[in-house]
Design goal:
Layout: E1 18-21, E2 27-30, E3 33-34, H1 39-49, E4 55-56, H2 57-64, H3 70-87, E5 92-95, E6 98-101, E7 105-107, H4 108-121, H5 147-173, H6 177-190, H7 195-208, H8 211-229, H9 235-240
Parallel strand pairs: 1-7
Antiparallel strand pairs: 1-2, 2-3, 4-6, 5-6
Helix pairs in contact: 2-3, 4-5, 5-6, 5-7, 6-7, 7-8
């Protein structure tokens, strides 16, 4: 959880762009400098950043201070908003009973999700052949264990896995087999029991002409599936290697 430290008054200009980072930990930056943010303000900023639309004050207060009485939760939110204004005047914008992040706040998560969706939803979109899995393997707010964070973390995990697999396939078709395998293995590391991730790596090895590496990856898949689930790889995966196995 973000460390609670006193925030200097108006340490960020209101109209200046501000970077809110949620991947691999919470951080607020301005002019490439980290800005001190109290823990209760960090929670409000993160919650609003993970919502695609303005949130009612009672929703924010009730979610962030779930164990507090309604009046106490509302008071906690007012205090957090007051502190947020001392960090930056337009960090959080109020629209009647609704709250949203200010228009100058840029969120690293948004860029990652946009890139992931491009990879999975638009197979015709051009990608840089030198693009690797960097930025697609980051975890959302590690060491934050609130329910609203855990739900978003799982949603992001699924987005990451699908995008890494798609990147593996796309890079392999471009002949960038090394980066393709790196992307596929990043998905495998994130979820070792995910057969489709192993299958993407196997296909990349085969495209590169490395049958032995493909067989080794298949054997690793077969081992983890059997030891953890008591099942064998599906026919779709087995068929990839059918021509390599002795009859």
């Amino acid at each position: 959880m973000a460390r609670s430290v006193p925030a200097p008054p108006l340490c960020v200009e209101a109209a200046a762009p501000t970077q809110l980072n949620l991947l691999n930990g919470f951080e607020l930056r301005h002019d490439d400098r980290a800005v001190n943010v109290p823990a209760n303000v960090a929670r409000v900023l993160a919650f609003l950043a993970l919502r695609s639309r303005p949130q009612h004050r009672t929703t924010v207060a009730g979610t962030l201070w779930l164990d507090s009485p309604e009046e106490r939760a509302a008071a906690n939110l007012r205090t957090a908003l007051w502190k947020a204004r001392r960090v930056a005047r337009d960090l959080v914008v109020s629209q009647g009973s609704y709250l949203r992040l200010g228009p100058t706040v840029e969120i690293d998560l948004d860029a990652m999700v946009a890139r992931a969706h491009q990879l999975t939803e638009d197979p015709t979109a051009e990608i840089d052949p030198a693009t690797g899995p960097d930025g697609l393997s980051d975890e959302l707010l590690p060491e934050w264990y609130d329910d609203w964070v855990l739900l978003e973390r799982e949603r992001l995990r699924q987005i990451r896995l699908h995008s890494l697999e798609a990147l593996c396939v796309r890079l392999s078709t471009l002949g960038r087999h090394g980066l393709a395998i790196e992307a596929g293995l990043a998905a495998v590391r994130s979820e070792p029991l995910r057969e489709s991730a192993h299958r993407a790596v196997i296909q990349a090895h085969l495209a590169e002409g490395n049958a032995g590496e493909a067989l080794r990856q298949f054997d690793e898949l077969a081992k983890v599936l059997w030891e953890n689930l008591g099942i064998v790889p599906t026919a779709t995966t087995r068929d990839l290697l059918a021509a390599l196995r002795p009859s």
